[in-house]
Amino acid sequence: MKAGAIVEEGFIYEEETLLTVLKTSLFFTGDGFTVYDPKGTLIFRVDSYEPDARDKGELVLMDAAGRCLLTVRRKRPSLHQRWEGFLGEGIDGKKPIFSVKRSSIIGRSSVTVEMYSNPGEDYQIEGSFSHRCCTICNAAKESVAEIRRKVDASTHVMLGKDVFTLCLKPGFDGAFAMGLVLILDQITGDDDSSDTGLPVDIAADDLTTVT
């Protein structure tokens, strides 16, 4: 699988890498995220402190130092809940580099990612984000990233959905993958009734153990 930098080359790993994603709304006001690498080092964060942050339709992905990497914004009006991604902070005077939308507005469906700079490099997201069990596939149907549940190694208890794993395959841009996570969270939310993914039976192979 060959990919390359979509947002930033510094977040591409040569080996399969498991990132830990925490929804900070568990602990603070708003809908934020913090993301850690396998060594426990903070690499991404999303700060949204306004009570109505989910309704703003715009989120900014930052690195650990607060540098803006990617802005995602909901395109209105849009029957398919289309979102667009822009490099850096804000969208003024910029062209989007990708868009994300539901494949269908009726029933359960996959999510389609359209790359504007390279139309042949589109992606499909299959599964259930609300269950934290889905796969991002490239145009060749190869898995480039996965979202999985976590299990505590000492108690063997499955952790809540606010703590999960983003598994990056070698060569896939982690900042781009995290941007997709932000959009999936906005499209599907945490309520199972709003899940647009496919029905999933969570098996042992889909779980990631916390060490």
How would you summarize this macromolecular structure in one to three sentences?
With 211 residues, this protein is mostly beta strands. The protein has two helices and 13 strands.
Produce the secondary structure layout.
Elements: E1 17-23, E2 33-36, E3 42-46, H1 53-56, E4 58-63, E5 68-74, E6 83-87, E7 98-102, E8 111-115, E9 123-128, E10 133-137, E11 143-152, E12 163-168, H2 174-188, E13 207-210
Parallel strand pairs: 11-13
Antiparallel strand pairs: 1-2, 1-12, 2-3, 3-4, 4-5, 5-6, 6-7, 7-8, 8-9, 9-10, 10-11, 11-12
Number of contiguous helices: 2
Judged by helices, strands and strand pairing, the structural class is mainly beta
Biggest sheet, spatial arrangement of strands: 1-2-3-4-5-6-7-8-9-10-11-12
- Report the sheet with the most strands, covering strand number, pairing sense and barrel closure: 12 strands, antiparallel, barrel
Helix content: under 10%
Question: What distance separates the N and C termini?
Answer: 29 Å
Q: What percentage of the residues does DSSP assign to strands (E)?
A: 35-45%
How confident overall, as mean pLDDT? 82
DSSP strand tally: 13
Global outline: globular
pLDDT below 50 for ≥5 consecutive residues: which ranges? 190-207
What is the radius of gyration computed over CA atoms, rounded to a whole number of angstroms? 16 Å
- Written as H for each helix and E for each strand, in order along the chain, the element string is EEEHEEEEEEEEEHE
